[in-house]
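Below sits the subject:
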Amino acid sequence: MGHWSILSSLDQMEGRTYVVPMPFREAISATGYALQAPGRVVVEWSPEGGYVARTIKHTPGWAFLLPILLPFVRRTKTAHLEFAEVEGGTAVTIHGAVDTKAAMRLRAITTVVPVPA
């Protein structure tokens, strides 16, 4: 689900869809609020629609093999979020990696969607 490093952890959320049990506009606002973390995750509205969530200051795990490189390999990871109205609320589909704590806050406001048999 995610990969861990000392300075940062990310959840790979490619193609995952969650349902926020709120009307469309409220769900967009609540999602942005849940993902936002000062100094860690920046959420911006994208011109194509949806959000872009940037996890800043992520350090890849391999960087710890050469500690002298640590100040130079910190990266920004980007995830794109798409919204759609569905029965029971608003669907949020995520493409990319999101900071683990931000992903946990997002999951806290969503409902579990039953998988059809």
The CA atoms of residues 13 and 97 lie 6 Å apart. The radius of gyration is 15 Å.
